[in-house]
Design the sequence.
């Protein structure tokens, strides 16, 4: 893990912030299942009473977190998304949700960051799964500074929070207040937030891709790093009375569809959801860049889909279409 072009890497920033977070929050306990332990050896040595490594037992990791929370501690649980959410989903549902206790789950790997590890290490459905459970907040930061702010803030709270770290990142940090923010208005100007031009909502690390993809298109670009619960009031304010909207998410296409539909239920709207397609599975290794291109989540793919929306056409959300 390293920063490219001086931009902080989200996972590296998470590891760097752990020690000060544990110092500031003596009730916090880092819970691992081997993955990540090699990056926080100094923290483990300095604060052995605040780190638990359960071994390669992800379901047990969530059970331990639930027990710690019941005992008044603040568990910070970390591994790859496919193991943290998918493999341990029943424990997340029961040991945390059903018992109504809080935890801060922090994943790495995103949808296909570890594409060389094969399908076992890919988790495009993680945010959809967490969003299906009551009482959770999901943060998808797009920059290392956002990771740091979220980690320090949520470690001091008691809620159920999922933070999704990705190797993809934006050049600049954005606000992490849970709101939908207008980042770029249409090139012709106009009152920010009051335009009726089509809107493209970028989630987390998709912002720079969206800005590049739409650089000369007559659309506004907005950002949120907190897709769940979605800032529906902010979305409504920006969308206008007859919205033409594209939502670009770095995971399963349509993950935010229900929230967006509810927010715009009283308005005639045309909405496109761009993400990892639901109706096909890429059974190849390749690089994360290869996967982004195959799924239409690189700048060229996003551009094609947004242009189709602007032209009134339906873009086929499937690999190779």
Sequence:
């Amino acid at each position: 893990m390293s920063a490219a072009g001086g931009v902080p890497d989200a996972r590296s920033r998470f590891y760097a912030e752990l020690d000060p977070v544990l110092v500031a929050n003596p009730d916090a306990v880092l819970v691992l299942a081997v993955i990540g332990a090699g990056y926080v050896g100094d923290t483990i040595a300095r604060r052995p009473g605040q780190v638990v490594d359960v071994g390669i037992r992800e379901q047990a990791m969530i059970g331990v977190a639930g027990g710690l929370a019941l005992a008044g501690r603040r568990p910070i649980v970390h591994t790859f998304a496919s193991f943290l959410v998918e493999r341990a989903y029943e424990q997340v549902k029961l040991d945390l949700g059903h018992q109504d206790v809080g935890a801060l789950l922090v994943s790495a790997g995103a949808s296909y960051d570890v594409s060389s590890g094969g399908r076992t290490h890919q988790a495009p459905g993680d945010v959809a799964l967490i969003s299906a459970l009551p009482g959770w907040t999901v943060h998808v930061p797009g920059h290392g500074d956002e990771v740091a702010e979220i980690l320090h803030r949520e470690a001091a709270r008691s809620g159920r929070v999922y933070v999704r770290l990705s190797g993809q990142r934006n050049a600049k940090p954005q606000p992490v207040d849970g709101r939908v923010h207008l980042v770029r208005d249409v090139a012709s100007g106009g009152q920010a937030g009051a335009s009726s031009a089509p809107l493209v909502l970028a989630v987390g690390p998709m912002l720079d891709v969206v800005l590049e993809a739409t650089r000369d298109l007559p659309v506004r670009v907005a950002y949120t790093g907190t897709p769940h619960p979605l800032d529906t009031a902010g979305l409504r304010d920006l969308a206008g009375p007859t919205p033409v909207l594209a939502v670009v998410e770095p995971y399963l296409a349509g993950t935010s569809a229900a929230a967006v539909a509810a927010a715009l239920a009283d308005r005639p709207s045309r909405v496109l959801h761009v993400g990892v397609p639901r109706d096909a599975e890429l059974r190849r290794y390749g690089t994360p860049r290869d996967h982004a291109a195959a799924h239409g989540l690189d700048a060229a793919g996003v551009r094609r889909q947004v242009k189709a929306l602007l032209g009134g056409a339906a873009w086929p959300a499937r690999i190779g279409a």
Summary: The two ends are 33 Å apart (CA to CA).
